[in-house]
Amino acid sequence: MEINRKQRHDKKTHKKINMRWKRVRKGVAKTSDEWEIEVKLPILEELKKQEKRGEIEIGYLDEMGWDSKPCIPYAWQEEKTTIKLPPIEGKRLNILGIMKRDNQLFYEIQVGTVTSEI
Q: Which residue of 61, 81, 85, 92 is surrounded by the most CB atoms within 10 Å?
């Protein structure tokens, strides 16, 4: 791997002041692969036709949750020191929502674990 002049300078500078690079955040979710789009899009189009004929109702489900636990970040830190994030206890708050194609929204708020029984 080749390091350009600016990167070398930054690394040297940080090393001189006893800093090191450590984890700051979690990775982001991956995007859908092209093959998923090729396979799933025709199926969705067929389902839309069935809905138009009155055979089925389509709803799009999504879930979102919040909790008080911090993420695991990276940060510049002095050598032989560690930045510690205090643990925070609390229950997870989840919201499940189903939106129909005519923009009707149905949702439920759940505290704690979400299971298939909701």
A: 92
Identify which of 67, 101, 116, 115 has the alpha carbon closest to the alpha carbon of residue 87: 67
DSSP structure string for 27-70: PPPPPPPHHHHHHHHHHHHHHHHHHHTTS---EEEEEEEE-S--
Q: Residue 65 and residue 92: Cα distance in Å, rounded?
A: 7
Compute CA 113 distance to the chain's CA centroid, rounded to the nearest angstrom: 17
Find where tokens 């029984």 sit: 117
Residue type present at position 91:
K
Q: Tokens representing 68? A: 């008080």
pLDDT tens digit string along 41-72? 899 999 999 999 999 999 999 988 888 776 66
Give dist(CA 104, CA 95) in Å, integer.
16
Query: pTM score, two decimals?
Result: 0.50
